[in-house]
Amino acid sequence: MEYVIPVVIGLLVAAVGYFVAHNAGRSKADKLLADAEAKAQGMLTLAQSQVDDKLGQADKKVAQAEGRAQQIVSEAKSEASQRRKDADREIQKRQQDLERREAGFLKTEEKLADQLDKVEKRRTELDRRSQNLDKREQSMEKIEEEARIELERVAALDQESARAEVLRLVEDEARYEAASLRKRIEDEARSEATEIARKLIVKAVFRCAVDHYADSLITTVELKGEEMKGRIIGREGRNIRAIEAATGVDVIIDDTPNVVVLSSFDGVRREIARQSLERLIQDGRIHPAKIEEIVEASREAVEEEIWRAGQEAAFRLGITGLHPEIVKLVGRLKFRTSYGQNVLAHSIEVAILSGIIASELGLNPKNARRGGLLHDMGKAADAEMEGSHPEVGGRIARKFGENAIVVNCIEGHHGDVEQTIEAAIVQVADAISAVRPGARGEALQSYLSRLHELEKLATGFAGVERAYAISAGRELRVLVKPDEMDDVLTYDLCRQITKRIEDSMEYPGTIKVTVIRETRETGVAK
């Protein structure tokens, strides 16, 4: 292809020369033709030289390629030979491994065959023994039947009567032995657990410092002067009626100088009425329209105070993630009392005690603190919600996403449902907070009635001579007739009285029952 171009150029030049020769004359044409042929010959020689050079280079490259191909083929043969040797070695190794495994399998098969023979022999022996046992059982049944008939003839009792008599004797003996065994086990457990429990409780109580303050069902508001009472009453009592209608509390104005009494079972309403009355006295303008305005402002202030109290309680205990409605219910406990004990302060104390006890027992204190704070939340719920405060609190906690452990602490802190360990801790902390000196108060009449009921309950048991309620009704001492009761029955009587108190009476804290004969048996009603 490379020498074709010069040839074509030469032909073109010849054609041009020929054309010129026809036009310019024959002489010139010959001259030009000669020149063109000379140039064409030079160009053809040059092209042939270039083609020879290219062909030489191509031959060299072909020779190099053939040498490289031979080298690659040689290397491939060498590598294939090496791989064939490696594969042969691997096949030989695997064949040896298979031979070893086959030998092991043969040995195992021989062992299994021997064991199968032994099992077969053992089964044959067991079948023979089973047949012998069946024969002996039939013989024993015949002998027992003959003995039963002979026993009924000698004892003059039929089978049912004899069975009833034997069962009665066995039951009495078993009950006595069970009481003895229960006494021994409880004595051992009590001796081991009392010291540990005392240390835990004392440590928790001394690390807990919560202020308590007593409250009642009334709130007093001081006046600047006696003339202010008339302004509060208003013309024909319209102002006092407006206050009572707006707040829902009873406003009592008596002969006590410079004092107005607000009475209501709802602490939140009493607080709204107190703030409203103080604002009205400070403002000086007391009429129905102003009363409604002030009461509404006071209600908003109290709601804000409730919210703040709930947040402060949660922050103090390090509790996060409470639903806003639960925070409000916790804050409302600030205006609720139980036996004269502020419920919010009591809940905070229970939460602190629960967290400390849980930590001492190696448990996670967060759930215990959370359950302790929320355990009385149901007391702040609306009166329209049915059920006891543990049930109401449990429903509310479940509704607003509290976890199952906290819900169980709320529902089970009085032992109404099956308890987790955290619920049991909250119940213990609740009892500690309730029974500590000065924590709660009681009306005199209910106090005396409870003492009388406690003594009457104990004297209703057979063998009891006298019973005395002491230590403000937190301990019951029972004197038994020594000729009718031994030590084991005395112990069993103590348990029965304790169980009867738990089932039939309502009381704050615990009651220790001490039954006295020659020894003293002590039980604690929780």
The helix fraction, in percent, is: over 70%
How would you describe the shape?
Answer: flat
Mean pLDDT: 79
Distance between the termini: 117 Å
What is the CATH third-level topology name of the largest domain?
Ribosomal Protein S8, Chain: A, domain 1
- Count the strands? 9
Largest sheet descriptor: 4 strands, mixed
CATH superfamily of the largest domain: K Homology domain, type 1
**How many structural domains can be distinguished in the coordinates?**
3
Low-confidence stretches: 209-215
Give, in spatial order, the strands making up the sheet with the most strands: 6-7-8-9
Rg (CA only): 54 Å
Q: Mind telling me the CATH class of the largest domain?
A: Alpha Beta
Strand fraction band?
5-15%
Number of helices: 15
CATH hierarchy: architecture of the largest domain: 2-Layer Sandwich
Order of helix and strand elements from N to C terminus: HHHEHHEEHHHEEHHHHHHEEHEE
Task: Assign the structural class, choosing from mainly alpha, mainly beta, alpha/beta, alpha+beta, or little secondary structure.
Answer: alpha+beta
Q: What's the short version?
A:
This protein has 526 residues and is of the alpha+beta class. It has helices at residues 4-24, 26-155, 159-207, 227-233, 238-247, 267-283, 288-317, 324-332, 343-360, 365-374, 389-399, 404-412, 421-435, 444-459, 487-504; strands spanning 218-222, 250-252, 259-263, 337-338, 341-342, 464-470, 475-480, 511-516, 520-525.
